[in-house]
Give the backbone structure.
Amino acid sequence: MNVFYKTSLLLLCLSLLFGENSVCAESKTATVENVTNEQAYEKKDVENSTNENESEANNEKSPPIDSNKEEILKNETKQRLETPKENPQKMSTQKIKKIEYIGCQRIDQETVASYLPVGVGDLFDDNALNESLKILNATYAYEEVGLDIKDGNLVVKVKEYPIIEKISFEGNKKINNASLKEIIKLKSHETLSPTKIREIQQGLLEQYRKMGRYNASINPKIIRLDNNRVNLVFEINEGDASGIRKIVFIGNKNFSQSALRDAISSKIKRWYRFFVTDDIYDSDRLNQDKALLSRFYKEHGYADFKILSCTAELSSDKKGFILTFSIKEGEIYKISDIDVKSHIEKLDEKELKQKLLCKKGDRYNIVLVDTDLVALSKAAGAKGFASIKVIPIVNKEETKNTLGIVFHIMEEDKVYISKIVIKGNTRTRDHVIRREIPLQEGDAFNESLLSMAENNIRALGFFKTVDVNAIPDTNSPDRCVVQVNVEEQSTGQAVLSVSYSTATGFGAGVTYSESNFFGTGRSLSVSMNSGFQKVSDSGITTNESSKEGTDTTVGVKKTKREFKFLNNVVVRVAEPHLFDTDVSGSITLHRNLSGKFYEFTTDEIGAICGVSYELTPKITQGWDYHFAHRKFKEVIPFASPIIRYQAMKLGNDDFPTKELGKSDLSLVKHNISYGTSFLTGPKGYFRTGISNTFAGVGGDAKHFKNELFGVYVMPVFDRSTIKVAGIGGIMNKIGDKNPLILDSFSLGLDSFRGFDDCGIGPISETTWAIINGETVISEKKVELVKKHKTTAYIGAKKFWKGTLEFKFPLGLPEELQFRGFIFTDFGSIWDAPEKGEKFLKPSTTMKNEDGTPLMACDFDGKSYNIQNIRVLDHKIIDDTYVRASVGFGVSFLTPLGPIIFTYAIPVKKKDNLDQEQRFLVGYSTTF
């Protein structure tokens, strides 16, 4: 082999010394191949191989080969000799006489000619050939390009890229065709090129990766048609979603793994999580998780918290990810001092300091600090200083785990907003977004308010992504342009719901909701619900077979309640910014069939118009007007005389005999509340408020209600809370007319666990006489009589109730959200709205609507032909007796929705009067 190298080197030297010969020609051929193959040494030798005269001149000027170049030449010679010879023929230099174009269809010859670096009269050689090919290929307009010259005639052959006739997709299920076409941004009758296909493949794969489908594959298929047209088919294998198999936190000491998993949005994939997507890996969500985790710790006082690393490792089968967060918690910091330092003379520091939520001695809470930043910016803006900057300076004392916060307010060089540009809102109208920006064109720029604008727009829930920033205005150095970039997302939802309760039985409903109706920012919901509800009860029943002249009671039994089918329809439209103000408004139309009081049902149709607004960040006020037309329906035969009296029109001194009564309710309601609207870290949640209702603005229902409530939920340790709540109310009549039972207060089931709905409170107890045939009742003697005793709840005008509850985790998989709770409810309800003395008379005859005697039902398994029912005795049992219950419960999440089990024992009750309901199960789900 060494002899071969030495021989080759000798031949190369001879060619350099004696000019062009056969060996030199071979060397030139190898050089042309290297041009064809575009080797690295192209610049050294190609120029010496394209023209014979230039070659001779260069050979004469070539320097002697020194020893340093010998090894280099040896390696180059070996490489050239081993390189395949793709074009052994050297193209001779020719002068172009004519240029002919073949294959030009959509692109005219003049355009192709404009790309060529040569023209008629120019010399054409290897360099020109390669240069022309590169330029034409670089246009990406041609699928194939060929150049040929003979006798001075240059032929340019091109094959244009085909035109797309049709684009279709196969195998896609998770993303519909319309969405895929939006992603690829390629339409029919456009030119198809390999570059476009590669870009589309990457775009589609990226979209599927965002859905967690990392093993998806895209196979483009081209179907050739005539006239250089093609059909483009994307064969898609979506693959399985790559769920999150595990979420691990390293470095956490003060919060458990489950507590931290609660703080982030990503969840571990479980078999029962088939209605959600937050258990599918998403890189964007991972960034959000980092922000949520940091905010969680800093809400709880960990000012030094850091995320050291965050990794997402894909399993070998590409079906699952393991998320690992390596963190450093640090210590809990308390606020040692807090102050406001204004660098603007006209701003009063003491006045501004009063607006701060952060207080000395409190735990550090980043949420409250951010809230204070916005509050100070707004306060300064209200004083006429819009171009300001609020900077919180935090001074830590690590040895004491305390920190001081000083909010510095400084006036910036005024930069005015020349324009607000909104992009990406293909559906939502501009003014819906613009009203969430507390800045207008012409205002002084304010960084805090700009940050607030981004949070406001994101909170709408209309957009997948929101980005708000300011860029300099190129036309003016003291102005800027605010850019708002959004990406729309679906805001409509159709829901099928199923529910079950031991109190009401099964129910079902359909709801359609749209939170951005026609892009106006208004919400629309239409719901239809149907189900069974307890609507009748004959109460405590006493039957007796008396002998003539006696009235001895011989037995007591309780009858069962019946379930009747009821339904309701509700249509609600809400405007969060009424007339582009901070006042929210709503209109609700409803049609309800209800049987709350068991003795009767009502048919109600009505409307509610309401407005609400914030007086301060913690105080909310609202006003409602409610009109409803109500009609009593299906009053049971042995309903309380009070209920029958209110349910039917009166006629002289007798009970009504013609038709069921109607009532028009027209009321105005005012409510005001104070407190936080969410659980804010270690401080917990609190809210208190009062409502006032005046019924009498028209209509025939007249009453005045006042209610007062308060609730405080305090976190005590990891995911455990203590709840203290109380509520009370009083109702007064207006004029001489007593309030209707429909409008009175009631307690039971969820509002007072351990007791049935309307199971406690004032009771109407009635003894009825059932008379067969022509038998009549005298004052001293009852002949051939069946007695029937009933009790009925008749509502109350006063009540109060308190609750203590401790909720805690059960240590089961957090994804199921298992929670246990123990509780006690206690309270009282009294003062019946109708006493009944004025109309309750013994021997009163009950009749049907058409005036005929009321027909009764069966007793003791025997049928009686009843002609008259008369009241023998009636009394009201009403006092301030305090009831109480204790119990426990479990709540958890199932694949089809949440389930709550509650068991409560009344520990203080009125025997034989209060109705118990110890066990309660509630279930609801959406599809």
About this structure: The chain has a mean pLDDT of 76. Residues 2-18 form the longest helix (17 residues). The radius of gyration is 43 Å. Residues 162 and 228 are 5 Å apart (CA to CA).
